[in-house]
Every structure is written in structure tokens, then in C-alpha cells.
Amino acid sequence: xxxxxxxxxxxxxxxxxxxxxAATVLYGIDLDLARGELAALxxxxxxxxxxLLTILGTLLQPTRGEHWMLGVDLATASEAExxxxxxxxxxxxxxxxxxxxxxxxxxxxxxxxxxxxxxxTPAMRDRAGELLEAVGLAARRDYRPAAMSGGQRQRVAVAxxxxxxxxxxxxxxxxxxxxxxxxxxxxxxxxAINAQTGTCFLISTHDERISARCRRRIELxxxxxxxxxxxxxxxxxxxx
Length: 240
Ligand code: ADP
Ligand code: MG
Description:
With 240 residues, the chain is of the alpha/beta class. Helix content is 33%, strand content 24%.
């Protein structure tokens, strides 16, 4: 592991709207994430968690500030560069699984790679199959989302987020829509993947049971970081 952070933002500001209607949502965020980190992003509703995750995921342009990841200056990168960077290095898990209803579990998991390459390959199918096995859903590979439980869908979504071997997975309230037992299963899975692969996870949540299982707490209040703790990366293994 190198000492350089996986990701750094400095004086990150996000303002929506113009003139009198302008609203500042993030006020000068400074944050570093290490490789292999398992971090919870906490804060009340409206504190800016989703906005921050969306910016870190290069899906939203900050109004101001620096944004570096893996040595790439994402604040000044073009949309095309960001799209490619995102596909190669960042996975997403949302509160609602966002699986495509007409695709099977296997096809959904394969999507990030197939979309990027513009075609499916046998190697992609193999990898998607292995990922479904890793999330305990090998037997559901040919099921469509409607035939799976909420917890199973979210485990498929975790597998999909890992398809392209991202260094960073951003999860926005991934268990917010799940019962307690399913939430625990998804969190067990994230913890195991983090430990085995060294994938960095940043997980926004309201659930103290989830944040208690993360090694670092990062807290937002009204668009400001009120706690970020030290970086706590781990070596991990090879990215599965
Ligand atoms: P959280 O995820 O912590 O609930 P959000 O990042 O979703 O917080 O929202 C933070 C604040 O930014 C809220 O006040 C919200 O209304 C505002 N906001 C989010 N997205 C937009 C947008 N596209 N336009 C204007 N305001 C927005
Ligand atoms: Mg949110």
C-alpha cells in the first residue's frame, strides 16, 4: 500500500441554483480516503450525504474545490474522461437497487463491463457468475429482480458494483430499504469483500448498527464535516 490517499477532496463546495435562489449544500469539504477503507458517512437527512457521494462518484460537478483520485485531477477532467474513469474505478450501490427488470441477476451483474465494452464476453459471464457466488446467490443467477427478495436484490447490486474491480464503492443508504436481517446480511457481505479485496467502501447510512461495523465515521452536518477521523485503510488482498 502506498501512503498516498486513494481519494482527496479539498475545499469542496457545492451550490445549487443561481442568484437569490442559490443554496449552498457543501461548504468547503476536506476529506481523504485510503485504499481498503471501510467508512460510514453519517448525518441527518438533508446534511449533504448524497450530494457528496454523487460528487465523489464524478456524477455531479462541484462548484469549487479540488478532487483527486488515483492521481487523476477529476475537478478539471472532461465529461468523457470522467465517464471512463468512473466505469473503471468506481462502483455504486443505491438505496433502491436499480437493477434492470428485464435482465437476469447474472446479466445485471455483467452490465457495467458489457456496457463499457459494448458487448458481452464469456469472461464477463464467468466473472459475474463468480461474483454471484461470492454474494451467496449462485443459485439465483437466472432469476429476474422481481423474483428475488429485497435483500437478494441488494446483494446482486453489490455484486454489480464490483464487476469492474473498482478501487472505491460508494453506497448511498444501501440498507435503508431493507429489514434488519437483510441489512445485516448486506453489511456482512460488504465487510467480507472489504477485508478480502481491499476495495474502499464509503457508506452513507442513518443506521447506527451499520456504522458501528465500519472502521471510520465521517459525519456531515448542514454541509460541513463535523467529524472525519483518521484514514484507516487496510492492505486487503487482490481485488476479486
Ligand atoms: P442527504 O443525502 O444527507 O439527505 P442531500 O445531499 O440529498 O442530503 O441534500 C442536501 C441538501 O441539498 C438538501 O437541502 C437538498 O434539498 C439539497 N439539494 C440536493 N440536490 C439538489 C438539487 N439538485 N437542487 C437543489 N437542491 C438540492
Ligand atoms: Mg441522501
